[in-house]
TrEMBL record, chain A:
It comes from Filibacter tadaridae. This is Glutamine transport ATP-binding protein GlnQ. The gene is glnQ_2. It is an enzyme of class 3 (hydrolase). Keywords: ATP-binding, Hydrolase, Nucleotide-binding, Transport. GO terms for molecular function: ABC-type amino acid transporter activity; ATP binding; ATP hydrolysis activity.
From TrEMBL, chain B:
It comes from Filibacter tadaridae. It is a multi-pass membrane protein. The keyword Ribosomal protein does not apply. NCBIfam families: HEQRo_perm_3TM. This is Putative glutamine ABC transporter permease protein GlnM. The gene is glnM.
Amino acid sequence: MISFGHVNKYYGDFHVLKDIDLTIKTGEVVVIIGPSGSGKSTLLRCINRLETITDGSLTVKDVHLNDKKTDINKVRRKIGMVFQHFNLYPHKTVLENIMLAPINALGISKEEAKKTAEFYLDKVGIPDKATSFPSQLSGGQQQRVAIARGLAMKPEIMLFDEPTSALDPEMVGEVLDVMKALAEEGMTMVVVTHEMGFAKEVGDRIVFIDQGKILEEAAPVEFFENPKEERAQVFLSRILNH
Amino acid sequence: MDFSILVDYFDMYWDGFVVTLKISLIALIASFIIGAIVAVMRITPFAPLRWIGTAYVEFFRNIPLLIIAFFFYFGTPALGLEFSGFTAGTIALTIYTSAFIGEAIRSGILAVPKGQMEAARSSGLNYIQTMRIIILPQAIKIVIPPIGNQFINLVKNSSILALIAGTELMYQADLISAKTYVVFDVYIFVAVFYLIITIPLSLGVGYLEKRLANSN
């Protein structure tokens, strides 16, 4: 589904991503973890070309993202993205937020988009907020709307960029529950997160990054119980032992 | 104060008032549309468009309006185009004001959080759709106060069209003054006519600002 081959990325002289090789299969839930500034978000953002790569090859469903001929808008319609700060459109109601891309990017009729939007809003558990504006919702509710907005495009891949990092602790659970349900339905997911419980329980594979390099890739049980790389051991001991 | 001038020459004042209103309204709408286009040009990732936008703004906001008006009135016949004072003046006022409005809108666009563009683009909307549906509506809200100022300036700036036979308020006042040999009173009355346009405009902008602030 997604394949990185010897991908490098530079910001000027700064080498952000170093020789990334990573393949993600359909239906897989891959959790990317690592310290701040390690390049996890950058890696994720390359998948829908919010960041471009400097060299190497990156394909999504066998389409080369760094090929000039690629219609990136078409690729993006198949990839939903959820951001740390939700990024809902503040001037649109919840329902309009969800209907916007299906209507304007897919050309679906208003009635049909409304039906779809209501379906997904129900699925994330807040059907009663349809006519509210984002500013009237709690952080957890906003993030669930953002997930519904992504799902309304009926994507094949969902990207999550630290979806719970900006939330009050008591709202983290409701967002993770929605993500877990999504994973159980077989959605292909790439998740950057600091929620180790989620990674352990829902992830099919953990990818540990530090300083732009993938240091370790393993099944969750193996990674958390028996990390091979010293850097990963240090990282885990710091975040788990307090 | 000689109110008989206002009464005797009311028709001339009124004609001028209507023309000023017309010029202002046309230039207001046109400069807003052009300003929005120029603002988007100035921030697009496509460099040649950005250069054109920048050149437009820097050129027109840094020369006097009167020179632009002279160009369209006295200069264009050399190019085989002849405009009335009204047309030449309205074009000049539109171009001049659009440079300022373009800058105001650009600053508004830059004030919209980056995540808005990212969310919209990552959902498959193209650049123009994102601008039109997501960014510009939010930017406009931010720039209503500075744009309101530009609109008020526009109404007042229309007075210099008197110099190219714009037939607007100031032009009529000059005529009345020449006929009556009265200066002070004639122009006081004309100031009142300007206020009749600018004060409601000012209040309207204030109202809009408050309403939009509440909507969020």
